Amino acid sequence: MASLIGVSSIYQIPTLELYQRPNAASTSSVRLQSLDSKSHFNNLLRAHRHSSGPPFKTGLKPTPTFLPSAVATPNSSLLSQEAFKGLARDFDQNDIEFQPAGPTNTDELDISKLDLPSRLVDSLQSRGITHLFPIQRAVFVPALEGRDIIARAKTGTGKTLAFGIPIIKGLTEDEQEPSLRRSGRLPRVLVLAPTRELAKQVEKEIKESAPYLNTVCVYGGVSYVSQQSALSRGVDVVVGTPGRIIDLINGNSLKLNEVQYLVLDEADQMLAVGFEEDVEVILENLPSQRQSMLFSATMPAWVKKLARKYLNNPLTIDLVGDEEEKLAEGIKLYAIAATATSKRSILSDLVTVYAKGGKTIVFTQTKRDADEVSLALTNSIASEALHGDISQHQRERTLNGFRQGKFTVLVATDVAARGLDIPNVDLIIHYELPNDPETFVHRSGRTGRAGKHGTAILLYTSSQRRTVRSLERDVGCKFEFVSPPAMEEVLESSAQQVVATLTGVHPESVQFFTPTAQKLIEEQGTSALAAALAQLSGFSRPPSSRSLITHEQGWTTLQLIRDSDNTRYFSARSVTGFLSDVFSSAADEVGKIHIIADERVQGAVFDLPEEIAKELLNKDIPPGNTISKITKALHVTLYWQLPPLQDDGPPSDFYGRFSDRERSNRRGSTSRGGFTSRGGFASRGGSTSRDRRGFKTSRGWEGEDSDDDDFSDRSSRRGGRNFKTGGNSWSRASGKSSGDDWLIGGRRSSRPSSSDRFGGACFNCGESGHRASDCPSTSNRRSFF
Ligand SMILES: Nc1ncnc2c1ncn2[C@@H]1O[C@H](COP(=O)(O)OP(=O)(O)OP(=O)(O)O)[C@@H](O)[C@H]1O
After folding, report:
1. How far apart, in whole angstroms, are the C-alpha atoms of residue 30 and residue 17?
2. What is this structure's pTM?
3. Which of 252, 447, 488, 650 is the most buried (most CB within 10 A)?
4. C-alpha neighbours within 13 Å on the C-beta side of residue 567
5. CB neighbour burial string for 311-334, b if at least 16 within 10 angstroms, e if fewer
């Protein structure tokens, strides 16, 4: 009988009291709190074995209610809890729940006390890994017992070593056997990963933990030769993406008949990127005597089917369970309203203020947007794009450069960044809304890894406000809704970052500059140093002002208040009438106008070009009116709240639109030729690898894949295709939206024509309706950052 294990408190699993279920025949308990270290591992094992009849349950919670009480919405991650629960029922599992009991006894998680091979302990310790993380602790004993396992845990919590440590322990002990050290030996471990980056990462983690084992990583997009020769030399662990593994099997370079351990990492992503048939073909051809472990964030029907068909009475370990919050602790979430145009201008400010010089990953929906955002950012912050149209070699260089801090902002599509373990990413920016809650969790999970802190910012347009609320419900998280950083905050953060860089200046260099510095200070005092800091920060000229309504540069937001004894109706026309009377140029140039929501106040906020605003503020105005400049949204006046912003972008919100069924249907149209039946390697023949590539013919701007089978930006392609649809539909809607702006102030000179396909604004010239790559005025390029 299998069991369901849940943990409600990640990073706090230290000392466990394991009780048999209250309804079990025996109520004896095994207390692990004060075990002496030597016998610790054996006791853990014994405790688990003794439980093999009725499973354990901890005693702290009366009865675990594993089913979420909340109602799941389609595509909700809550569905996955149901699925996990359902799966447990399918396997006739009973509940086990681990709860922290009493103070942390870190000894019990100490890897030096777990009877692990000393070589493994040494290499783990040299990497700073001294104690098991909760998922590793939960998987450890059942894995050593040879149980098949289905597991999920939050992002960045150490799932790789959860299967890695027990498998390496098994392999290391077997190593005494001479036949297992011979050259040309066949792999005993197969790890399947959905993307090549994840495969490489898993391989790295295993290699660094057990450098004495031969680990080979195989994935598409690179030559077969080096992978084939590594396999022919003899190998213990093969980590790879399904497509390339099948190709290598077909080419007789990879033989799986001695595989003892199978790991399916991110199984749900196999489905998302279209590998389900390949995975099944591989599983069909593995020896039936093996141990299988499946890690998956969600349990779509296909993963459940896999588990039923290919796993043997698996133990389900769920460290997410009915915990509402699906994100790792330590990730602070902000949501910022922006328009498609203003996103572009606030992006570098967000990086400056929230990453504070650390690493940032910006997520876009399409490859093309990743390129354009990265290009635009590069004017102010070193940045590179990562997506499926970039060659494998360049991707590796990009990732290494990012890891090493050669540049600090990576702009990536979803699949590109899935599962990436880059230490110390400080900030995640969801430049566009994710398509589903899982994507949000995975994107955000690139920060706050291994117990560290991080920040994730979601940019949304006013039409996406409800989606943001749905996201909160689905993920079980809470955003803090904030305004984009005010210019003062940007300057302050820039100054701090510049000050931090000063510590890197070599003392000998400092000596050369000291006499001049002394002279400057004598002549100008601290303003000399301030000038130097401003220059270093890139603010040798004062930053241009920015609208608090649209966040566009070059605009100033003003507030007009009319005395409350004036009984005339106050409207946008009142503002333009007032401006015509005082300063006609202002009336001609006025941008957005919003009436203050508070009925007790007669007034409005509105945008004017910076210079015109300055002039207006110097004019005499009729009595009974007050005009002032607003410098900070929401904090400026007690009664004014920034009204909802009019969206000037495409309704590119595909959140929750794609059920698994839809996903596979969509994929159906581009499914791989020759793979309709599980059947086998033989049916694919030698040319299948070419066939596999053959289906990817389109290289359209929507983000269609190139030869990128394993890395597979298929979801990005999906996003791209729909983005285009969104663009089309927005083109129609935008006539209205832009028309309104145009009517109010005439600021938007170019109303998008009905033939416009792209709804956002160009990164080059700032005009809406075309992309930077289609910009008619590339020679006239201007920087927005
Ligand atoms: N016990 C440990 N102590 C310290 N660091 C650890 C431990 N286990 C894993 N790590 C480190 O934590 C980081 C995250 O681990 P890993 O990539 O396996 O997480 P994950 O759960 O697979 O994440 P994701 O779901 O995002 O793929 C890695 O850098 C890994 O080396």
Report:
1. 7
2. 0.58
3. 447
4. 0
5. beebbbbbbbbbbeebbbebbebb
Task: Label residue 494 by pLDDT band (50, 70, 90).
Answer: confident
Ligand 1 centroid to Cα of residue 159, in Å, is 6
| Contact status, residue 681 vs residue 249, Cβ threshold 8 Å | yes
Identify the residue whose C-alpha is closest to ligand 1 atom 12: 450
Predicted-complex ipTM score: 0.97
Q: Is 129 in the pocket of ligand 1 (CB under 6 A)?
A: yes
Quick check: CB of 164 below 6 Å from ligand 1? Answer: no
Burial class (CB in 10 A: 0-12, 13-18, 19+), 455: buried
- 151 C-alpha to center of ligand 1: Å? 15
Is the shortest distance between the CB of 445 and ligand 1 below 6 Å?
A: yes
Q: For a substitution probing ligand 1, which of 129, 202, 294 has the most ligand atoms within 8 Å of its CB? A: 129
Q: Which amino acid is at 262?
A: L
In degrees and rounded to multiples of 5, residue 456 shows phi and psi of -125, 130
For position 707, what pLDDT does the model report? Answer: 30
Query: Under 8 Å CB-to-CB from 56, ≥6 apart: which residues?
Result: 3, 18, 19, 20, 21, 47, 48, 96
Helices (H) and strands (E) in the chain, counts: 27, 23
Residue nearest to atom 20 of ligand 1 (CA): 156
Ligand 1: centre distance to CA 283 (Å): 26
Pocket test for ligand 1, best of 160, 197, 298 (most atoms within 8 A of CB): 160
Distance from the alpha carbon of residue 769 to the mean position of ligand 1, in angstroms: 43
pLDDT digits (tens, 9 = 90+) for 6-39: 333 222 222 222 222 223 222 222 222 222 333 4
The answer, yes or no, to whether any atom of ligand 1 lies below 6 A from the CB of 421, is yes
Instruction: Give tens-digit pLDDT for 433-461.
Output: 988 888 888 888 888 877 778 999 999 98
Rounded CA separation 82/469 (Å): 21
526-537 vs 507-524: helix axis angle to the nearest 10? 130
Residue found by looking up tokens 């832009």 in the block: 738
- Residue with the smallest CA separation from ligand 1 atom 13 is 450
Q: Is 343 in the pocket of ligand 1 (CB under 6 A)?
A: no
pLDDT tens digits, 359-382: 999 999 888 899 999 998 887 788
